Each structure stands twice: as C-alpha cells, then as structure tokens.
C-alpha cells in the first residue's frame, strides 16, 4: 500500500523566528493516530531566521538526523562537539542516556532550512555520541545514495543505531529508479523538490510524503525532475 501525505496536511507552526512543518505528532501538535511509522518518530521541516535557533536543551533515547537543504546549521553539544552543517553533509546525534545540544543559524543574513528526523533506537542505554560526514552531491544524480545506515557501507555514510538506511537522490527529468524492498519492511519517501510518480500511479509533489507497506518493488519516475529522500525501515 502507498499512502500519500500531501505537504498541506502537515501541521504548521509559525513562531516568527521559526517556521516548522510537522509530519508526525510533535510539540503542541498531538494526534494519537500519527505517532510513528516503524521507528520513525519525528520528521520536521524547519526554517530558522538569521541569528536564531534552538538553545541548549536535553534529549534521551533517540537517534536524531539533520539534513540541511539551504544555509548553515551551527551545532554544539555536551559531548564537546561544535560543528557547522551545510548542504552535502549529514549530522547524526545519538542522545542515548542523555545529551544537551543547541542548533543555531550562525548567519546574520540568510535563513537555514533543514529537515530533522528522530528515530527510536534499536537499544537503549547507549553512550551519547555525534557524527557528521560530507558526501559528493553529484553522486545523488539518478542514483539512490546512502547517507545514513546501520550497515557498514561507504565512508561518507554516518552510522545509526537502528536497522535502517536513508538515501538521497536527484532524479533528472524522464528518468526512473527501482527500489527493491523486503516483504516485512516499510519504505518512506519524501519529495524535497519536484514531482515523483510511484509505481505508475501515486503522484508526489514538492514536500509530499508516502508511507509504503507491503510493496517489494517500487518504481520511481519523474517527468520534470525531483530531489527526494527514501528511507528503508523495519516495520516495528
């Protein structure tokens, strides 16, 4: 089954300095029927104004991944890490037994747009940790490029403590990709830009998402071109 979640169905929060779209229950948005998709717990699309951000705050027992789409994101945490994340880089933070971090827009002139995803870890009680890696964005062209995984893949892939793999892709107009999935797993697709068609039927436009179950072969095509994320997830 391919279940489409249009961009406009997301919960919208506007705090002036921060504009967010929530794909799952988060903060003031609560929907008991929209809590999880496999271990995927949070998928937020955030825009932070210059000089603003999320001050120091704690987390526990969560795998947190940030993908910067535009601008720069400044990170600092209680493990001693202090970094700046840019497009073409992936950030993974394991909150484990407890971590305090901040995510700020270091620019005084440009906003930052980033996706932040939270996953339930496969095991609890982990030591808090942080990892950030750059990858060659040209390798996303007409390809599913892994950037986050529990498996030992390429050097640019950050490790996550959950049985999943996240791919990024830039599919040119009139191109097609095929993704093979195991019978008992889920697939999540999110369109960052452009339009996709899945298995010749389901159409996803900019910022739409699809939660896919019980499908082992997914044909992904685009007439106009699209940038998208695909996540291979366990069903529970």
From TrEMBL:
Domain of life: Bacteria
Example GO molecular function: metal ion binding
Pfam families, sorted: Pirin (PF02678), Pirin_C_2 (PF17954)
Positions with a binding annotation for Fe cation: 57, 59, 101, 103
Note on how the cofactor is bound: Binds 1 Fe cation per subunit.
Alphabetized UniProt keyword annotations: Iron, Metal-binding
Quercetin 2,3-dioxygenase C-terminal cupin domain segment(s): 148-233
Key word Iron present: yes
Cofactor or coenzyme needed: Fe cation
InterPro entries for the chain: Pirin, Pirin_N_dom, Quercetinase_C, RmlC-like_jellyroll, RmlC_Cupin_sf
Pirin N-terminal domain residues: 11-118
Gene3D superfamilies listed in its UniProt record: Jelly Rolls
Protein family: Belongs to the pirin family.
Protein name according to UniProt: Pirin family protein
